[in-house]
Every structure is written in C-alpha cells, then in structure tokens.
Design goal:
It is globular, with a radius of gyration of 20 Å. Helices cover 40% and strands 19% of the residues. α1 (13-30) crosses α10 (294-306), α6 crosses α7 and α10 runs antiparallel to α11. The protein has 360 residues and is an alpha/beta fold. A 10-stranded mixed sheet has the order 2-1-3-12-11-4-5-10-8-9, with helices on both faces. Strands 6-7 form a two-stranded antiparallel ribbon. The longest helix is centred in the first third of the chain and has 18 residues, at 13-30.
Length: 360
C-alpha cells in the first residue's frame, strides 16, 4: 500500500485537501490502487504547534512516501514574523529538502468557463499550455543574499545562480513533456542582459539536439508576458528558471479565468512528487465552506498521472470535473458575470465530483 502524505497547511488548505482526499479514495478504490493517507503540519499550522514552518520529522515522513498532497501556506496571522521563519519558508524548505526541482503547471481553459477569463473568449478558447519551472535554484536560493544596513544608504543583494546540470535537468523535463503534447518548447529568458540566461541559452540548445522532432523557440521574458495576453494559444510547453516561471505561471493561470481551477506538480528525480493547487491560502474565506476545491482535486489527478502512472484514474477525475462544470455547478469564484445561478460550497462541490465518479 502506497502512502500519501497530506499537508493541509493554512487558510482554506484543510478544506480543499479534504475534498481532494475524498475523491482520491473513491477513484483509487475503483481502479484498484492501494493507498493510505497520513496527515502532517506545514506552514503557519506548524509554527503554531511546533515553532517552525517545517520540521525534520515531516521531511522524513515525506521522503518515505509515494506522494504528497499540499493545501496552502501563509496568512496575516504570521505576516509580521521575520522572513526567515514565516510559513512560506516551509514550502521553500520542503522543495529544497526533497529535491523537487521541476514544477509543472498546466493552464487549460475549461469550455464551461471560457467566459470567465478577462480576455475575449475567442482569444482564450483552446488554451492548453504547460509551464515547466525550475524550482530549487536561481535567485530564490542563490548566495550571497543579505541586506546591508551598515552604511549611509541601505542596500540589498540577491544572487541568481544556475549551473549547467540544473538547466539541463529541467530542460529535459520540458522536452519529454512536449513529446506527449504538441511537440513545441518555448525557452523563456533574458539573455540580452543576464549572463545566467546566456548559459541557459547554451544548455537548452545542447539538450534540444537530443529531441530532433520537437521544435524549440527562444523568447525574451518581457515579450513572452505580452504574448501570453495577446496570443496565448501559440504556447505549448514553456520552460524557464525559478523567478520567471513564478511570475509567468501565475499569469498563464489567470488568463484561463480562475486560479481556483488550476493544479500543479513539483517533481523530484526518482519520481517523488508534491501536488498542490496554485491558489493561495485565502484566509478571508477560510472555514466558511466557500473555497473552490477543484484545483486541489485536479492536483490529485496529476498525482495519479505522475507518481502512480495511473492515467485512466487521472482521466476519470478530469472527466468528472468537466461534467460538474458542464452541469452548471459553481463555487463563488467561478460564477460568470451576468450569470444568475446559485453557488455551492466546498463540500458540496466535492459531493458533485464524487457523484460523477460513482456514475461513470
């Protein structure tokens, strides 16, 4: 039996992971996948209970598991804490400790929600892209990093550092993913001003030689941001570093209509994966049964696909979510402007997905 560690975290995290767990239990039983769940603390919840956003025992528990399902971390309760000890450090810490170097964030428009985007429907219809973001290097982890308050003027320093092995590793992930999609990779960079990006250009080109059937394009990050708004359907797989990927994946997610709908996966070498919705902890609605659990449920589908190679089970979850949306069921965040329909809560949305799975 394979263990899944559940890290509910803060805010709406416990609510959405609870619904994802319900769905995983049902779909795994139907597809004869033997799983068990164990819950642990991360983020603000861990700070309150243990004094740290991430403890060694949780890291070890995750290492010994097949996959991890995470909710969200952070909230105003901990905003005044030093940066080094805030809840977000738990998320960064577990990525580093487990070697979760590849972040996969699909951005796909659900046909029932095409009107939800701030862009015109004819621009967003058919969007189906994957942002592959390097997750454990770059400016978020580079050294030196400090604020110098000793002089007459305060200065701050962060270092963007990558080596060729880190770049090649994430690039291979992107090309492998493109091979099962539309066979196109866009490498996003800032090589006109950054030496780090110049090295990325060299290494990406070298890796591309091993994938002759996949087309490669290079795109400056500023023009990529523009094209994501202007012509988002042109992109298949985007590969980039930690900082650029953080920004662009949120942009790509939002043009699809709602952050509440989109999952993500963070993968280590060897197959261990952490799966989480891309939305935040939304403390303003926590505990009110208002959260949208579909991104967490779809994160469970990504878990089955990437950590269990259970593609049929993953497809069953996605089909159920499509059917729920097509039937008109909505949480508050995905009600379209001008729609006059009642909304449902987090638990009821989970119920509707389970109903579709049971009927399949």
């Amino acid at each position: 039996m394979d263990r899944i560690v559940v890290l509910p975290g803060d805010g709406i995290g416990p609510e959405v992971t609870a619904q994802a767990q319900r769905v995983l239990e049902v779909v795994c039983a139907k597809h004869d996948i033997k799983i068990s769940f164990e819950e642990a603390l991360i983020g603000g919840a861990s700070i309150d209970a243990k004094g740290s956003p991430l403890t060694d025992d949780v890291i070890e528990l995750c290492r010994e598991s097949r996959a991890i399902l995470l909710g969200a971390v952070g909230g105003p309760k901990w905003d005044d804490m030093p940066v080094a000890t805030r809840p977000e450090k738990g998320l960064l810490g577990i990525r580093k400790a487990l070697g979760l170097f590849a972040n996969l964030r699909p951005a796909q428009v659900f046909s029932a929600l095409a009107q939800a985007s701030s862009l015109r429907p004819e621009v967003v219809e058919g969007i189906d892209m994957l942002v592959v973001r390097e997750l454990t290097g770059g400016i978020y982890f580079g050294e030196p990093r400090f604020i110098d308050r000793s002089g007459p003027v305060r200065t701050a320093t962060n270092a963007m550092v990558y080596d060729e092995n880190e770049i090649a590793r994430i690039t291979r992930v992107a090309f492998e993913a493109a091979g099962g999609r539309r066979q196109h990779v866009t490498h996003v960079h800032k090589a006109n001003v950054l030496e780090v990006s110049q090295l990325w250009m060299e290494v990406v080109e070298e890796v591309a030689k091993g994938y002759p059937n996949i087309e490669l394009a290079h795109q400056l990050v500023d023009s990529c941001a523009m094209l994501l708004v202007k012509e988002p359907r042109r992109f298949d797989v985007i590969v980039t570093g930690n900082l650029f990927g953080d920004i662009l994946s949120d942009q790509a997610a939002m043009i699809t209509g709602s952050l509440g709908m989109l999952p993500s996966a963070s993968i280590a070498e060897g197959g261990l994966g952490l799966y989480e919705p891309v939305h935040g902890s939304a403390p303003d609605i926590a505990g009110q049964d208002l959260a949208n659990p579909l991104a967490a449920i779809l994160s469970g589908a990504m878990m089955l696909e990437h950590s269990f190679s259970a593609h049929d089970a993953a497809g069953a979850i996605r089909t159920a979510v499509d059917a729920v949306l097509d039937a008109g069921h909505r949480t508050g965040d995905i009600v379209l402007d001008g729609e006059n329909r009642p909304t449902i809560g987090c638990v009821e949305m989970g119920d509707r997905v389970l109903e579709q799975l049971e009927c399949a």
